[in-house]
Amino acid sequence: MLHVDLDQFIAAVEVLRRPELAGRPVIVGGRGDPTERAVVSTASYEAREYGVGSGMPLRIAARKVPDAVILPVDAEAYLAASDEVMSTLRSQPGATVQVLGWDEAFVGVELDDPEAYARRLQQAVLDRTALHCSVGIGDTLVRAKVATGFGKPRGVFRLTADNWLEVMGQRPTRDLWGVGAKISRRLAGHGITTVAELAAADPEVLAAEFGPRMGPWYGELGRGEGSRVVDDTPWVARGHSRETTYQRDLTDPAEVDAALHALFEQVWADIVAEGRPVIGVTLKVRYAPFITTTHQRRIATTGDRDVALASVEALAGDRIEPGRPVRLLGLRLEMPMPEEAREGHTPTRSGW
User: 104 catalytic, yes or no?
Assistant: First the structure.
């Protein structure tokens, strides 16, 4: 199985539209105005050399690279380019394609020379879209995904059971797909700091820390194990979320309430389009200057708008600290998975 990841995708799309930007530091974020509150969506490799990365405040990125070209986000252009790439992948001989996002996908195929196939796939994407990609080859989805990082940019790398610990063993657990900062800290609390240590960890210790399902799963992750099937079943969302960074701090409780209601209406429209009820609420609050808190609450299953809104209001009333200037609000509504939805997918770092 192969993992295909487009190199600096959003920046690359912008450079295709503006060839004169090739070789220059390009930063994409917000409305392209570093005086506004916004974060970096992506940066070209030239900008990354200065320490600019996704999620960084745009104003800080502009300070790091004073001569950078800063562009607004154009989601429709990126989606159109992504559709072309995914169509190209699906057109490859024998390929089963599992899309992970705008800029990455798994490709399952039976063959004897995966490196040669990967190079042909890269060329096919380049010929059709003028975009470069890196390809990871693995005998599990996890190994293929991790392998791609070693192939960037424009390269191919293979990770299998034979070289997994040789390549990954001494790396920190944070380098694993599915292990974020919080999980790595909890692992470190048990003396587990490297991939090799996680691979050899006592399953009972992991189960006690993370639960009977996730504990063993983290152990498998440390060994690079997991699913060996590329599944092209359409993805089913577990929830919908929206967030807004305000150009001026919200200080009046009435402003905060109005902003939260506006977010709710946007998310609720997404929920209604899904046709499924709500089972959970997550509230994200970023206070000035840049302190972020996240609060979750399970609720009784409901498809009633007023009941869902009341649950959001109750969570906000309990958790938003009065008197503190609010810089950002985010709201997520969780839905139950339908019976026919795909199970056993690999967790990622995405989301809150």
Answer: yes
Query: CA 147, CA 152: separation in Å to the nearest integer?
Result: 9
Intervals of the chain under pLDDT 50: 345-352
Strands across the sheet containing 69-71: 42-43, 26-28, 69-71
pTM above 0.70, yes or no: yes
The pLDDT of residue 347: 44
Q: Which residues pair with 282 in a beta bridge?
A: 296, 332
Annotated catalytic residue within 104, 197, 225, 334: 104
pLDDT of residue 349: 35
Of 196, 192, 189, the C-alpha closest to 222 is 196
Q: How far is Cα 11 from Cα 13, in angstroms, rounded to an integer?
A: 5
Per-residue model confidence (pLDDT) at position 338: 81
User: In the prediction, which pLDDT does 180 show?
Assistant: 87
How far, in Å, CA of 36 to CA of 91, rounded?
Answer: 42
